[in-house]
Amino acid sequence: MHTPAAPSSFVSIAFCALMLLTPSVWLQADDREDAEKAAGALAYDQEAEGYNIRAEMTTRTLEAKVGKATRMQLYKGNEYCFCIAVPKKSGVHITGAVLDLEGKPAGEILPVLDGWGFVLFYKPKKTGMYMIAVHQTDEGKRKDVPCAMATGYK
């Protein structure tokens, strides 16, 4: 009868690493969900104002030092709202703008008092590709966080 040997050091190290990484994966998933819930709450308010909110929500990592821009086709005659949020408990404050066809910031922003989100309103004068730019401000903590965006139009 053969007695199994003790686990190799590689297996032990791999198991320990897995146990250490698992909570951070859960936290990242929770932060992503929190950002999406926050953006969804902002979108819900805009839906009551007559905006049609698109079913899909975009969630990406917003880095501490570099903003994030999303290209979108916007159509003349529509009025758009962009509901953008990071996790409420993150302490990160964000702001943003629509960059028009010439790259100039535009749009009317309605920030959340705690800084974790905002609603950006824009009515394009021409149909074309626009950029929705988001970045962290100095008022809050600076760290990499998930950032969710829901889009609506009327």
Please describe what this structure looks like.
This protein has 154 residues and is of the alpha+beta class. It has one helix spanning 9-47, and strands at 52-53, 58-62, 68-74, 80-85, 94-99, 105-106, 108-111, 117-122, 128-136, 145-153. Strands 1, 2, 4, 7, 8 and 10 form a 6-stranded antiparallel beta sheet that branches. It has a 4-stranded antiparallel beta sheet with strand order 3-9-5-6, with no helix packed on it.
Beta-strand residue percentage: 35-45%
What is the first-to-last residue Cα distance? Answer: 75 Å
**Approximate shape:** globular
User: Order of helices and strands, N to C?
Assistant: HEEEEEEEEEE
Low-pLDDT residue spans? 10-27
- Average pLDDT rating: 85
- Count of DSSP strands: 10
Q: Largest sheet at a glance?
A: 6 strands, antiparallel
Number of helices: 1
- Backbone structural class: alpha+beta
The level of helicity is 25-40%
Calculate Rg over CA atoms: 21 Å
Condensed summary:
Helix content is 25%, strand content 36%. The chain is an alpha+beta fold and 154 residues long.
Kindly list the characteristics that best describe this protein:
four-stranded antiparallel β-sheet, 36% strand, 154 residues, alpha+beta
Helix-strand blueprint:
Elements (H helix, E strand, L loop, with lengths): L8 H39 L4 E2 L4 E5 L5 E7 L5 E6 L8 E6 L5 E2 L1 E4 L5 E6 L5 E9 L8 E9 L1
Antiparallel strand pairs: 1-10, 2-10, 3-9, 4-8, 4-10, 5-6, 5-9, 7-8
